[in-house]
Amino acid sequence: MDSVAAVRTEGLSKQYGKVTALGDLNLEISPGEVFGYLGPNGAGKTTTVRLLLGLIRPSAGRAEIFGLDCQRQAVEAHRHLSYVPGEASLWPALTGLETLHLLARTHGRSDPAYRDELIARFDFDPSKKVRAYSKGNRQKLLLIAGLMARPDLLVLDEPTAGLDPLMEQVFRNCIEEARSRGQAVLLSSHIMSEVEALCDRVGILRGGRLVDLGTMAELRHLSAVTVEATFDGLVPDLSGTPGVSAIQVVGPVLRCQVKGDIAPLLSALSVAGVHHLMSREPSLEELFLAHYGAAPELAPVGG
Amino acid sequence: MAESLTLPATGVGGRSASGWLVFARTTRAAARSGLLWGYVFAITVASSALGYSSAYKTLAQRQGLVAAFGSNAGLDAIVGPAHQLQTVPGYTAWKCLMWLSLLGAAWGILTATRLTRGEEDAGRWELLLAGGTTRRWAAAQAAGGLGAGLAVLWALTAVATAVVGRSSRVGIGVRPALFFGLTAVCGAVMFAAVGLVTSQLASTRRQAATYAAAVLGAAFAVRMVADSGLGLAWLRWASPLGWIEELQPLTGSRLLALIPILGWTFIFVGAAVFLARNRDVGAGLVGTRQAPSPRYRLLSNPIGLAARLGLGSAGSWAAGIGAMAFIVGLVAKQAGRALTASSSMERALARMSVGGSGAATYMGVGFLIVALMAAAAAAGQISAIRAEEAQGRIDNLLVRPVSRSRWLGGRLVVAVGVQIGFGLVAGLLGWLGCATEHTGLGFGTAVVSGLNSVIPAICLLGAGAAFLGALPRAATALTYGLLAWALLVGVVGGAIGSNHWVLDTSFFHQTPPAPAAAVDWQSATVLAGLAVVLAFLGSRALNRRDLAED
After folding, report:
1. In this structure, are residues B478 and B471 in contact, taking their beta carbons and an 8 Å threshold?
2. pTM score, whole prediction
């Protein structure tokens, strides 16, 4: 199984009339890899997930789960995965435990001991009927249902919506354990800190297209570094320095971004008599926003 | 996926524009639905009046009809007592009133629960309540919006009656036509009000509709007993359907019975508005108790889940069908005697494919009603299957090793099983009613007749499955539309002698009403085969399309 990609898509596309919900997606996720899938609302994240699950048909291209076609071999492919949606739609008349029992039996993988462990870790009361649960508790129910099968692939579409910070930490621990067991994870999320903390690789979607893909180090390598310099005297004009952009001056402090070779900036700073110098790689949020042309005001480097 | 909402800006002082949003939305939806059903009402009235005037032209023919129907307790139990049957208005009122009252009551229940509890289930109610309105004000607005739908229903029925009434062969004045229209929608008014209350009591739309249907079933049973010639005519005042009969439109127009009808409506609407504040949004006042311990019975696969989810509703329908069949069996002997004596009655029933004589003929009519009830339940089953997809619950199963065909097939197997159960219950309790009065209907004949009566419902399930596969978002409306068409053509069209090409489009017409007629095994096999083919095509279409949430 290890030689086969957990997820592979080739030219995967979905059109709704003239609207391209997803265009020409080529993606591969390996077993044991946690893959972060980022994009704002309407970027195509959920469309991708529903295509992988075989719930909707592609307009072009194909997708595989562990070598099994997501459309023609959907039932076999689903034996390898669990799906956790961001919005719970369950049977209101069943209790939490009845729901878990049904979903475990339907999946064919059942480990009551692990299920009970997850119930305890998520501090979940399974005796209530689904209609009586809050949004957060319904999300816990879905997470437990997804995790308890210990599938080869976890497909998570904004899985922590409605969870409090304590439960979010429990979730992160569960994902770390899944990775250590060799399970692959596709994590579609809005929460940058969650993706940054958990994911081995990240893909960023924009308008249905994958605009960036790589490890955090690879993404950062191609992106600008934030530099903050404090001067004893006048702050120099660095607007002509190669690679430098987004210059901000506040009193004796200069903040800017530098992309590519940093040597010209260092030369200019040393000539101007820099007193204090700090640099910081961009956060995932800054990388993400850069793709959407909405780069935030530069935060203090030490902040 | 939630329907998009445009919330008007909140005004300053007095009720804001958003404070009337529930009224506007409910009015639009109810009026649209009222328009559709209003046409069915209008066609029913027009076809009855014109059909009678052309089928019974001479005084002798009409007197023959009076002799058969005028004092027939058995038929009275089903369609209500007849008045002035020798006139077109009298016949039209007798022929249409109970059907339209029941049809209207079903419309009222479905529309009220859909536009209140259904909206709440979909999460749209919370959005509205977060605006410039309160729970009670929203419930009051929903009731007002339903009133618009009822007004459309009344207007179309009244206009159709008045237009047809202008014909010299019919002779119904404008004022009697307006009053008849009002009477015809009284069932819709009263049971829409019941639906508003059960939407406050129940936790889901389906549960709310089931509770309201139980009230309707009880009202029908009480009215049936009152009209059965058992000396219990006073019981008519204990049933909302009895009050409608007491109005006697087109033959006497007794306004007194409007008092309990108005009282019932105001009390139920008032109760709905009052209860709206006494519960949490999304929860019901009953049925929210927590299970003491989990019950895993049937929760092993999608078929088991379908059985468990449909058990309550199926039980309610089975109780209604069983009670109906038992009462029909009880009065069959007495009713059958009158039928045997009438040649004109024989002709009228022959057009509905009802032959034979005596108690068997009467039981045939009774099982025809069972067929209608079972078909209505089948339309509800299709609606429930669609709701699983529309609300995204199906995703939980289809992302596991469950194919779409297996899921739909499982749901249909359960639905057909429930229908066969209805047939057995009808046959068994019909036989029991007959046996109590020593009517002489054989056990085997009764059971086969009961099973025969659910064949149209099974055919409707097949058609519904095809709609689910090919046109998922319209599947529920199309299934109910097909039922209305089959009802109109098969029952009303049959009685007035429509063209056989038209009649053949109705699965009711294709199913002879045993035991009045011999079971047509060939026709039954064709209908069952058609259902299987349609279900197969529906399954294929489902496999080839995107899942469609609302």
Report:
1. yes
2. 0.76
